[in-house]
Amino acid sequence: MKVIVDAFGGDNAPVEILKGSALAAEELSVQITLVGNKAEIKKAAEENNIDISSMDIVESGSIITAFDSPMTVIKSKQDSSMAVGLSLLADGRGDAFVSAGSTGALVVGGTFIVKRIKGIKRAAIGTLMPSAENPFILLDAGANVECTPEFLNQFAIMGDIYMRQIMNVASPRVGLANIGEEETKGTELYQEAYALMKEANYNFIGNIEARDIPYGKADVVVADGFTGNIILKTYEGAAGALGGMIKAMFKKNALTMLSALLVKSGIDEFKSKMDYKEFGGAPLMGITKPVIKAHGSSDARAFKNAIRQAKMFAEKNVVAEIENNLPIPKSKSNQE
Amino acid sequence: MKVIVDAFGGDNAPVEILKGSALAAEELSVQITLVGNKAEIKKAAEENNIDISSMDIVESGSIITAFDSPMTVIKSKQDSSMAVGLSLLADGRGDAFVSAGSTGALVVGGTFIVKRIKGIKRAAIGTLMPSAENPFILLDAGANVECTPEFLNQFAIMGDIYMRQIMNVASPRVGLANIGEEETKGTELYQEAYALMKEANYNFIGNIEARDIPYGKADVVVADGFTGNIILKTYEGAAGALGGMIKAMFKKNALTMLSALLVKSGIDEFKSKMDYKEFGGAPLMGITKPVIKAHGSSDARAFKNAIRQAKMFAEKNVVAEIENNLPIPKSKSNQE
């Protein structure tokens, strides 16, 4: 298993990326190919005592920044660490690619360099999220702000396969994020998507109200990229703000600090359940090879987990499963 | 101050509505006019020892249920407690109207029976929400799933006035809910709304990422009704699910229960900060008279707070302020 790593993506590149890669090489027995400026990589590894002796390094030129337009990756910055890494993946010189760089650029690069699966209209970002019960996947978490009902239906198909293959859920409950349970709720897009989805082969449980999402009432939550991103970030923000308030409550004085000790195991359990870093990265769903987006603020552990995510995505043949389960090409080939 | 009350709206009508009205009559020195089936109201009051002796009762026929289409209120159920109450308000037989009934019907009834303020394109539901800092208003929280940039700009104007008049915020920070801070983020609707809003007279702070909303980084959060409802409910759901997990953590055993005692004041503070019932109802913004939507599951206390909200909305002349601050009619009159 060979994972290609964008050594210059994200807020903490290259040091945390290198540390995470080293952890992955050690713990997950994967082979790592780093992409970036060789001299800088070697310098950062040396200064921070990171063992990269087992890793290949492929030289690249520029770096895609948060300020670059997503199209840069296939235009002026084709020599960037992200573009070069994606090209290596497309050429079969690795089994998966992981980057903590710009989401927009990764979507464009994944789509045009690695290419979409035949029949898939749009790549989507699938984000695994914690709930009061089990984790669920939300897609699209931000790749496509404008969607058609068919896109949403395909997001559902891909999310269903992800939860089966990677999370071992036998019959994932697929819900359409909406503002009410009734079929007539929401915009035209959502009403038409509902009509398509209720005829589909996956286990469609209808609309899921946003209120029910954090309780884990669906294993796959489908939304357009704008709405999905709003759900993801409202949830993240609420968890962060509430967590902060609770932390402050425990830090008030000696008695409250004693109190924190008494519930320490509960707090630890809660933290680990809600910790997005445990989930690793967000897969770019609908691309012909595994491309994983690590959180922009990934530290070494989060990045290592993104590499684990990439490894599982490759091992469990998610791409092939999507190819085999797309209803559209199937019915076409029947007619031939 | 006379507040008209829909005695048959919401999940807990009529008992909790009557109890809440009695509390309001006593604590807030408002005069209450109940609308509903007189015989049932009297029976419920008697059976539950609720003192309604100071209240008028206006007879109505049917009840709008959660299953009725919103248009029912101006069509087949013009004799409903909601429609009759709104007509009383339109006729000047009270200063404000409060209902815990169907949101959709209240929006339609408010718009067509009480009427929109001249120049206002759409009524919006403004929901006051808790944050890690101060409460903020989110609008539209669900009245209009399809919006134009002009609607969003008007929501901003109304929210700004609400926070000034009711919450005493001197210069409310108005943010446009979006998936990124840059002006070019989001759908066409959001990009065009941004362009309009940055020219406006209120204190526009640009796009606010959903992640920052729970931290209280804006006093007014503007969104279309679909997105606003998703934000509201994801936030509610996240707070509920996380609150439940923390509660379970404290209930585990004797030591954790002792721990809960030690942080009791902190927990109480946290609960009261996050308690939507404290905020009372959601005003229907853009209507010529105060119309307040109480939460469907309101108990007596929540309903009393909705009546307090109605009273303040009337006393602080929010409607007149909106009329005076609409930029469109103003510039027209200048040209005359």
Kindly report the greatest chain-chain contact and the residue count on each side.
Answer: A-B, 57 and 57 residues
Number of strands of chain A: 12
CATH fold-type name of the largest domain in chain A: Isopropylmalate Dehydrogenase
The backbone outline of chain A, from C-alpha atoms, is globular
Second-tier CATH architecture of the largest domain in chain A: 3-Layer(aba) Sandwich
Give the strand order, joined by hyphens, for the main sheet of chain A.
3-2-1-4-12-11-5
Q: Would you tell me the structural class of the helices and strands of chain A?
A: alpha/beta
Helix content of chain A: 40-55%
The share of residues in extended strands of chain A comes to: 15-25%
What would your notes on this structure say?
The structure is a homodimer of 336-residue chains. Chain A starts with a strand and ends with a helix. In chain A, helix 1 crosses helix 11 and helix 5 packs across helix 6. Chain A has 336 residues and is an alpha/beta fold. Chain A is globular and about 60 Å long. Chain A folds into 2 domains: 171 residues, Isopropylmalate Dehydrogenase; 160 residues, Isopropylmalate Dehydrogenase. Helix content of chain A is 46%, strand content 15%. Chain A is built from 13 helices and 12 strands. In chain A, the strands form 2 sheets. Chain A has a 7-stranded mixed sheet, with helices on both faces. A 5-stranded mixed sheet of chain A has the order 6-7-10-8-9, with helices on both faces. At the A-B interface, helix 7, helix 8 and helix 9 of A face helix 7, helix 8 and helix 9 of B.
